[in-house]
Amino acid sequence: MSDTFQCGDNTALVSFLYDECEPGERATIEAHIALCPACAAEVAALQSARLQLASWTPPEADLGFAIVRPRAADSPRPRRLRPGAWFRQPIPAWAQAAAACLIFGAGLSLGVLRGTSLNTSSSAQRAATNGPGSPAAVTATDLTALEQRLRAEMAELRAAPASTTAAAPQVNNAQILAQVRALIDESEQRQQRELALRTAQVVREFDSQRRMDLARIENSFGQIEGLTGAEVREQRQMLNYLMRVSEQR
Amino acid sequence: MNWTDEELVARSRGGDLDSFNQLILRWERPIYALAYRVIGREEDARDVCQETFLRAFRGLPGFKGEAKFSSWLYRIALNLSRDWIRRQRRQPTVQLPEGADPSEVAAEQGPVESIEDLVSRRELSAVVEEAMALLPEEQRTAIVLKEYHGMTFQEIADLQGCPLSTVKTRLYQGLSVLRRHLEKNGRVPQLVKRV
């Protein structure tokens, strides 16, 4: 670059404006500006336009782009799972326990009701046979026969092993309770495993987000520092220029 | 650990996605800002920004590191922005042919809002944005690269594929249009009034 400067050479003024000219050329332009009001005004106007440009900031945008690993083309495509029919869906443990209790209760009630209805029907049948107003028709023979029948039934009951009558329901109850407990235990273990997995995932995501935020903040600080430095530099240049112009006048 | 761009590029070329995502994190704001200032539309600038990194990722095997990674990114983003401007038909931006008299074009823009109402920084930003939209794409890009990305004349010339003197001319003409537009809006610098 030559050290000569022709008045009105705008490209040279731009070089001067952005401080991208050779030291010798810079001195030449400075000397010319000190004497030429037109060029001085031109440089000052361009400089002020530059200062206005600093106010233009793009709107905040939610960026956060990231490249994700593509699925390998040769790997088998995972089968898409469709929800099965409602009766094929796995039933939760608590529902299974509730259903077991319900069935047990219903069976128990049915048994109790059957016994009650049998007694009621035999009484009603007898009343119908004798008629409502004939209690006196019962003879001593009938009573004797009834007594004998009852004694025979009681003897049969005594003869039957006690374990088969009394322990059976207890065994059934114990089995059901054991099954229910096993189901509940299994469910709790599954939930604990799931909870542990979720917790680990949340911690991982939080950590990743934190690192990304820190990097972004660091980047922003760098940009702000750069911008502030540029503004300070520009203002310093402008002040220097003003000082020079005012001293010369 | 703070890796340099070159180190992250090398790791990315080795298949490390996290390294490339770090590059994205580092450069997405400047690239978005560049695209926004060249295009002037937020959503499209986001698209250009996204496409820039996608192309960079796909082009990593061909990136030999002869230029800086940031320069390479800027070049991709500028090419995409230029393509976007060419494609845009529905709402064309006001274009000023190079060499036209900026003051006449600025004068033809009609009455503009009084500057007395423009008191906040946001409003001033809008005025500057409006003025920048008046510029031809080449001048606007040159100013954006110089003012907001701190590039040298030579770097801008390389990116725009033009001689150094053309870059200076574009800067001068662009700043002149801006100055006139700001004057028209009452943003006349006190220094200019006194001279």
Nearest-integer average pLDDT of chain A: 77
- Give the CA-based shape of chain B: elongated
Which chain pair shows the most residues in contact?
A-B, 42 and 51 residues
| Total count of strands of chain A | 0
Tell me, what's the shape of chain A? rod-shaped
Query: Count of helical segments of chain A?
Result: 6
How many domains make up the coordinates of chain B?
Answer: 2
Report low-confidence residues of chain B grouped into runs of 5 or more: 109-119, 190-195
Give the distance, in angstroms, between the N- and C-terminal Cα atoms of chain A. Answer: 30 Å
* Name given to the CATH homologous superfamily of the largest domain in chain B: Winged helix-like DNA-binding domain superfamily/Winged helix DNA-binding domain
Describe the main β-sheet of chain B briefly.
none
The CATH architecture term of the largest domain in chain B is Orthogonal Bundle
What is the CATH first-level class name of the largest domain in chain B?
Answer: Mainly Alpha
Structural class of chain B: mainly alpha
Task: State the separation between the terminal residues of chain B, measured CA to CA.
Answer: 53 Å
Question: What oligomeric state is this?
Answer: heterodimer
Helix and strand layout, with pairings?
The complex is a heterodimer of chains A (249) and B (195).
Chain A lengths: L9 H8 L5 H13 L1 H17 L39 H38 L9 H20 L2 H87 L1
Helix pairs in contact in A: 2-3, 3-6, 4-6
Chain B lengths: L4 H9 L3 H23 L2 H18 L9 H19 L14 H6 L13 H13 L3 H11 L5 H8 L3 H21 L5 H5 L1
Quick recap:
The complex is a heterodimer of chains A (249) and B (195). Chain A is mostly helical and 249 residues long.
Q: What would your notes on this structure say?
A:
The complex is a heterodimer of chains A (249) and B (195). With 249 residues, chain A is an all-alpha fold. Among the domains of chain A are: 55 residues, no CATH class; 67 residues. Chain A is built from 6 helices and no strands. In chain A, α2 packs across α3 and α4 packs antiparallel against α6. Classes of the chains: A mainly alpha (249), B mainly alpha (195). Chains A and B meet through α1, α3 and α6 of A and α2, α3, α6, α7 and α9 of B.
